[in-house]
Amino acid sequence: MKTTFRTAILVICVVIGTGAQGPDGRAGGTGLANVGPLDKMPRDLEVRYALSALPPHLRADATTYVLDPDKGYELNHKGTNGFSCFVERTEHERAK
Question: Does the residue 31 lie in any domain?
Fold first, then answer.
């Protein structure tokens, strides 16, 4: 059983690694180009979006973080139930 599990993990890693390469073998084979830095999201929208990952009964007591594109993630609300939420954002990309 352990061997099957390890083999499955290895196959997943190989597939992920090769999928990140284009036909020419270079990284970034998705055909996407970086088009600039992140824009700041409206704070209340970002918090609601982050909390939407949790069931409604856990949202009020969850810790939330918001992204300041110039500084990184900042604490928005310190929760008490051990759950933390944030919207993972990366640089904008679009097809070439």
Answer: no
